[in-house]
UniProtKB/TrEMBL annotation:
Native organism: Nitrosomonas nitrosa
Name this polypeptide is given: Phosphohydrolase
Any one GO molecular function term: phosphoric diester hydrolase activity
InterPro entries to which the protein is assigned, alphabetical: Cyclic_di-GMP/3'3'-cGAMP_PDE, HD/PDEase_dom, HD_GYP_dom
Record keywords: Hydrolase
Residue ranges of every copy of the HD-GYP domain listed in the record: 7-202
Record lineage: Bacteria, Pseudomonadati, Pseudomonadota, Betaproteobacteria, Nitrosomonadales
Family matches, as Pfam families: HD_5 (PF13487)
Chain segments annotated as transmembrane: none
Length: 307
């Protein structure tokens, strides 16, 4: 008898791949989706939620920025602080993401995290100005985790905050920006060191590397070996990867990468691990490949995605 294959698995994979392609367009947020997903999972587990809810929230953490596919590259990769007009465009991404998910068979599982991760407890967030318990469990948790990762990540116009300082910022905004009870739990976890292996990483054990020329993130994955050539997708600079024991660094060669070198890459090994973990607890009653939804997105955005 053939081994059982969860029919939700290809659906989950289609969501992870699409989100990863969106992230690959942004030179400054390498690993953001993985980190938010991990923070969300840890917080949900600490809160005593059942495994299927933990899996759902973790998946929502990975998908939350799906709508950024509609944001122009010039805004996503801008080195300076955004103008009011540019910020208004950025603020459309929760609704765009929600619309993209609307026809997907798993939309009911992940939709709240996508559309509500910028809502705030005091009702001053976007897109709908929800307040308090109007914001779903998923939206409340992913909102905290997304904000924490934004604070602890380096941007062209500022260095990332320390874990301690970012936690203090969340403490200061309890009951205003963030759900008070879930924020307290998050602060407890952070203070106990549960996030140290995630902050500044793009996957387990892989630290983020800044381009020595222009600053954006050079994402290193476990498949890369010592001496491999890696590239900054913002300025095109080539670097040699230096791996010694647990230490990772990059050394600029002075050369530029070709168009092929600078193509967005998906870390399929990481995605396969995430899909495998999610599919343990997420299931559907009717087999559905999700290929129609995926095909529509490929046509709509003219993205060259892996087959």
């Amino acid at each position: 008898m053939a081994a059982y294959e969860n029919p939700a698995k290809p659906l989950i994979k289609s969501l992870f791949v699409m989100a990863a392609m969106v992230e690959a367009r942004d030179s400054y947020t390498g690993g953001h989706l993985w980190r938010v997903s991990q923070y969300s999972r840890i917080l949900a587990e600490y809160g005593g939620l059942p495994p299927n809810v933990v899996a759902r929230i973790s998946l929502g953490g990975y998908l939350h920025d799906l709508g950024k596919i509609s944001v122009p590259d010039a805004i996503l990769n801008k080195k300076d602080v955004l103008t009011a007009e540019e910020y208004a465009i950025i603020k459309t991404h929760p609704e765009v993401g929600s619309r993209l998910l609307s026809d997907h068979p798993l939309a009911g599982l992940t939709g709240n995290a996508v559309i509500q991760h910028h809502e705030t407890f005091d009702g001053l967030g976007y897109p709908h100005g929800l307040a308090g318990d109007q914001i779903s469990l998923d939206g409340s948790i992913v909102s905290i985790c997304d904000a924490f990762d934004a604070m602890t990540s380096t941007r062209p116009y500022r260095k990332g905050m320390s874990i301690e300082y970012a936690l203090a910022q969340i403490q200061a905004d309890l009951g205003r920006q963030f759900h008070p009870e879930w924020s307290k739990k998050f602060i407890e976890l952070g203070g106990a060191g549960f996030f140290k292996h995630i902050v500044g990483h793009s996957e387990p054990g892989m630290t983020l590397q800044e381009c020595p020329i222009c600053g954006p993130t050079i994402v290193i994955s476990k498949k890369h070996r010592h001496g491999d050539r890696v590239y900054c997708r913002a300025c095109g600079s080539e670097a040699l990867l230096q791996k010694e024991n647990s230490s990772i660094s990059v050394k600029i060669t002075g050369r530029k990468g070709s168009a092929k070198n600078l193509m967005p890459e998906i870390n399929n090994d990481l995605l396969d691990d995430l899909v495998q973990e999610s599919s343990k607890y997420i299931s559907i009653s009717t087999p559905h490949s999700g290929s129609d939804w995926y095909r529509q997105l490929r046509i709509l955005f003219r993205l060259l995605l892996p087959r």
